[in-house]
Design a protein that fits this description.
It is a single chain. The chain is of the alpha+beta class. The chain has three domains: 82 residues, Uridine Diphospho-n-acetylenolpyruvylglucosamine Reductase, domain 2, CATH 3.30.43; 127 residues, 2-Layer Sandwich (Uridine Diphospho-n-acetylenolpyruvylglucosamine Reductase, domain 3), CATH 3.30.465.10; 82 residues, UDP-N-acetylenolpyruvoylglucosamine reductase, C-terminal domain (Uridine Diphospho-n-acetylenolpyruvylglucosamine Reductase, domain 1, Alpha-Beta Complex). The protein has seven helices and 21 strands. Strands 6-7-15-11-12 form a five-stranded antiparallel β-sheet, with helices on one face. Strands 1-2-5-3 form a four-stranded mixed β-sheet. A four-stranded antiparallel β-sheet has the order 17-20-19-18. A hairpin with a 5-residue loop joins β6 and β7. Bound molecules: flavin-adenine dinucleotide.
Length: 323
Amino acid sequence: MGVCPSGSIGTLNTMIDKRHKEALIKIVGKGARFHCSMAQYTTFRIGGEADALCFVERLSELQQTVSYLVRENIPFFIVGKGSNLLIRNGGFEGILIIMRGELATIETDEENTPEVTAGGGLGLNALVTYCSQKGLGGLEFLVGIPGTVGGAVAMNAGAFGEEVEGVVESIQVLTPQGKLETKYRSELAFSYRNLSLPEKSIVVRASFRCVQKSREMVSRKVSDYLKRRKATQPLEYPSAGSIFRNPKNDSAGRLIEKAGLKGKKVGGAMISPKHANYIVNTGEAKAEDVLTLMGLARQKVKEDTGIVLETEIRIIGGKRESA
Ligand SMILES: Cc1cc2nc3c(=O)[nH]c(=O)nc-3n(C[C@H](O)[C@H](O)[C@H](O)COP(=O)(O)OP(=O)(O)OC[C@H]3O[C@@H](n4cnc5c(N)ncnc54)[C@H](O)[C@@H]3O)c2cc1C
């Protein structure tokens, strides 16, 4: 898998021209990459080229990038670790933004209540490790979810009966108008695997309420959760986690398994024999293989039970070809 070259101005015919490229390089310097294969930036290891990928390290850079893209009417999309994302093989016409550096730091306010504040680009496993070292409990359920803080807030990530909704205190959001807004828990419209925010809003930071515990207690819970994940999830293959949302009072995995689709393959994609709500990339899967399997699962479950499975993963891109 090649590393996307920084700063190079490629020749592929896309919707951004030389002037746009120069402007992006001016804002994010070497963080601007052009014609990037996105497969290496998603946990599915699938995805065509993005016209550009901007690694943004500072809030001011993020604000300038977003303002520029909005002004120039260029489509953009924020990517965390790409762990709930399917990018079609036709690629993404526009700019993908990934936050890191100062936008992926972490701090604690232990004065009154133990609260942890983390940048939207921080990986969840780094957040959990930090909390374990400090003896801060409450976020253990996030261990093993291979996303970022921003992605977890946007998706209301959850596991083992807990969700981000239950632990978030406030978030800082950058609006497409370039305004930085703080939103408190009571103002946030969370639902199952979703947070309703105005389109193109970016979660820049989030504060979580923790509970002071011993380091041993936190570490024990973390290890237990990791063990349970390993036993039930096909972690040996690239995937995007659960493909479908669980229907009310049921599990998408159970329904797909009952439909007899465990182990079903299309091209390089396979419905996991270990967990039927996971589609795994066995090597050379294309987005269309995954989409075909998704269609098959949806159709079979509907025929068998009348239940229509709703997609949990986010699917983007693909205009350049019919993937
Ligand atoms: C092996 C495996 C296990 C998983 N287990 C779980 C699980 O137990 N529970 C669970 O809930 N999920 C699970 N997932 C799915 C996924 O990890 C989560 O949904 C995660 O929260 C996505 O975070 P991300 O940073 O990778 O977001 P991405 O996949 O990059 O993006 C997902 C969505 O979030 C948006 N987004 C990302 N960052 C931001 C931001 N800063 N501001 C605004 N929007 C943003 C994107 O635009 C996109 O719409 C699993 C995935 C895998 C591969």
